[in-house]
UniProtKB/TrEMBL annotation, chains A, B:
Domain of life: Archaea
Domain D-glutamate N-acetyltransferase-like N-terminal: 36-128
Protein name as it appears in the record: DUF1611 domain-containing protein
D-glutamate N-acetyltransferase-like C-terminal domain ranges (all copies): 134-333
Cited InterPro entries: DgcN-like (IPR011669), DgcN-like_C (IPR035086), DgcN-like_N (IPR035402), P-loop_NTPase (IPR027417)
Gene3D superfamilies in alphabetical order: NAD(P)-binding Rossmann-like Domain, P-loop containing nucleotide triphosphate hydrolases
């Protein structure tokens, strides 16, 4: 699928969805729309991004695309009215529009009529399907080994770790599927339920449904985790993924130097306590164990310092660890495969 | 408020909402509607229920009421069409209708027009307000001591324990408020959010909002718990209540003889493990400790056997315990007040 990604004024570092899709998506990204970086190239702005031209608007695209993907999400998840001309132009050109905003494009009467007139689809990734239900507690019955990333906090690299593991496992010849649980992961995979938006009674059920749908067609499922099992606001999402997936292997993700839950006053417990917490929570339902750790060292400039931080993290865990982006995920994969 | 409670063909044992409101609500219950027990009295059907006449339909009521409360919830939460004449008659008589069904009365066009014509309100208790948000992690800042019931499983008596504790604490002269989290509790209190129906990102936030709303006006808040922290389907709801409330004291509720999660193949962990699980999950956010236990012995016929079961439960917990219905909640309250 040929796509353009809208990321005005936030690209690259404020556009996690855009950079996630650029790095890990299977899409053919024709261009990024960013009026601030018109004429630049994504790979020049950040070296981990593929070569992708940046243009000022949808009408500046040199070639046709199948879809426009909204690659940014302002705080609150609203729709920025300065994006309307791009979405309008995309729909008039017969393109689908994919969005992870809290504001649903399908509820916008102009977009809905334009989509109908031009035979396009509006895909609001954050809208969970209405037929989700309660978990049956049977995710462990699938044939695949289920691996889940879990975290000490939000924003420590669970999605990136999961995607690096999937990519490298495939390179190593394994039959692996990715189970996304958040908007960026869903856009990358083109499938999945937004677990943070489900009704709380159905959180585990939505995850279980994904595991059952893919778990007999692959040797390994890699489930994208969310938040932290003791997060002051989001622990319910984490618990739902842990028990809904009944993962066999857990990979504990953490960010170097993180001391408090991001945006909260509460301190993170020490790393070994997280191992105990996840394993004792998993024991009655699924019985998963922490087999390795992933440390995000992106805030550590010096490579030697980063390597030392990873080593200290592995010591605290008593398990192998790596920074899957800086060092590659092989040390983690070796503990799983 | 004078009310009638609809509980056709399920009263009393299949009508948890009806019996909960009869036992613990502040309402003046004029009658129960149950076409199967027309002419009987609630207190004759079950000795723990107050004297309340039973009539066959709304039009058989001897005196006017302010509201009709739907006191049963079939599996799936649908609306039984045989109830329509009662709801219609109530609205035509100018009564409000209170419902905890998944099927929202407000979305029923006949009921909505009747309510408008007659100036009545339809209160769908299970519909969460649309303005809930993410928790700020600040529930511990309220002045009240926050007590939460937690459980080994669903249906072990968390709501009943909470309400018995509230009632007895008031009798003992304390300034206490009840914080409901489920439909029956909300109907009893006339206030509260249905935590199992919130968006999973907002589960803790909805609980926190209730704590902040009442936490500076009372000496104690008693929070109704839900499910179990290791429940195969609902652990996310439990985690959200634990971290959203940041309860100081936890009362662990259990049912005598319960070995598996109700309706699931997974075995319950031993009781001492539940104490560790709840305390280690609470430690980073709120720091609550299990101070006492409540054992539901309703399935044990013999009083001596029930007392022995409570004693064994207290030993396993290493804390005081009681069956709050059979023995009264004083032993539990003494550990809190």
């Amino acid at each position: 699928m040929r796509i353009a990604i809208l990321a005005h004024e936030r690209f690259p570092d404020g556009a996690k969805t855009a950079t996630g899709v650029l790095r890990y998506g299977q899409h053919d990204v024709v261009a990024v729309l960013d009026r601030e970086h018109d004429g630049a190239n994504a790979s020049a702005l950040r070296r981990d991004l593929p070569e992708t031209p940046i243009v000022a608007s949808f009408s500046d695209l040199d070639e046709p695309v199948d879809a426009l993907l909204i690659g940014i999400s302002p705080i609150g998840g609203g729709f920025d009215e300065t994006w309307r001309p791009d979405v309008r132009a995309a729909l008039r050109a017969g393109c689908d529009v994919i969005s992870g905003l809290h504001y649903f494009l399908e509820d916008d009467s102009e977009f809905r009529s334009l989509a109908e007139e031009n035979g396009c689809e509006l895909w609001d990734v954050r809208r969970p399907p209405s037929d989700l239900g309660v978990a049956d507690g049977v995710a462990d019955e699938v044939e695949a080994t289920v691996v889940a990333t879990v975290g000490t906090d939000c924003g420590v690299g669970k999605m990136t770790t999961t995607l690096e593991l999937v990519e490298r496992a495939r390179e190593r010849g394994h039959d692996v599927a990715f189970v996304p649980t958040g908007q960026t992961g869903i856009m990358i995979e083109g499938w999945g339920y937004p677990i943070d938006r489900t009704i709380s009674d159905f959180t585990a059920g939505a995850v279980e449904e994904m595991i059952l749908e893919r778990g007999n067609d692959h040797d390994y499922l890699f489930v994208e985790g969310q938040a932290s099992i003791v997060h002051p606001a989001y622990s319910g999402v984490t618990a739902g993924i842990l028990h809904g997936s009944q993962a066999d292997d857990l990979v504990l993700c953490h960010a170097a130097g993180r001391e408090n839950f991001h945006g909260f006053s509460q301190a993170l417990p020490p790393v070994p306590e997280f191992v105990d917490l996840y394993e004792s929570m998993a024991a009655p339902v699924g019985g998963g164990e922490v087999v390795a750790g992933a440390l995000n060292t992106s805030t550590v400039a010096d490579d030697d310092e980063a390597a030392a931080a990873v080593e200290a993290y592995a010591d605290a865990l008593g398990r192998p660890a790596a920074d899957p982006v800086r060092e590659g995920p092989d040390a983690i994969l070796d503990a799983i495969l």
